[in-house]
């Protein structure tokens, strides 16, 4: 009988998208992070009892754009700032690179 090989989550990511630091893996990791930001926006929008259309009206885009944002697509810093302002949220953006940190609030 052939034995089955089991892989950890990290091993599967390495096998599928390459090791951390490779372009394909960085793209995958970024897509997951953007998706998580979108899901948090959706969670907050729903907690405030707003529809996608309501939020779209507040920031000047159509409902379809809000759907994309909540799925982590077409997310830019400018878009995130508009959404946070529309939802009346205080947020801090921290960017770290080579030991240098830039914080915006």
From TrEMBL:
Superkingdom, taxonomy of origin: Bacteria
Domain named HTH cro/C1-type: residues: 41-94
TM annotation in the entry: none
PROSITE patterns associated with the record: HTH_CROC1
InterPro entries (UniProt xref): Cro/C1-type_HTH, Lambda_DNA-bd_dom_sf
Pfam family, one: HTH_3
UniProt cross-references to Gene3D superfamilies, sorted A to Z: lambda repressor-like DNA-binding domains (1.10.260.40)
Gene Ontology MF, one: DNA binding
Keyword list, A-Z: DNA-binding
Official protein name in the record: XRE family transcriptional regulator
Native source species: Mucinivorans hirudinis
UniProt lineage: Bacteria, Pseudomonadati, Bacteroidota, Bacteroidia, Bacteroidales
């Amino acid at each position: 009988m052939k034995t089955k090989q089991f892989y950890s989550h990290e091993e599967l990511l390495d096998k599928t998208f390459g090791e951390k630091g490779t372009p394909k893996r960085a793209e995958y990791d970024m897509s997951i992070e953007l998706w998580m930001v979108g899901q948090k926006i959706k969670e907050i929008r729903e907690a405030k009892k707003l529809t996608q259309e309501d939020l779209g009206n507040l920031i000047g885009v159509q409902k379809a754009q809000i759907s994309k944002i909540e799925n982590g697509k077409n997310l830019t810093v400018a878009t995130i700032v508009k959404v946070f302002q529309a939802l009346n949220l205080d947020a801090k953006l921290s960017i770290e690179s080579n030991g240098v940190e830039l914080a915006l609030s």
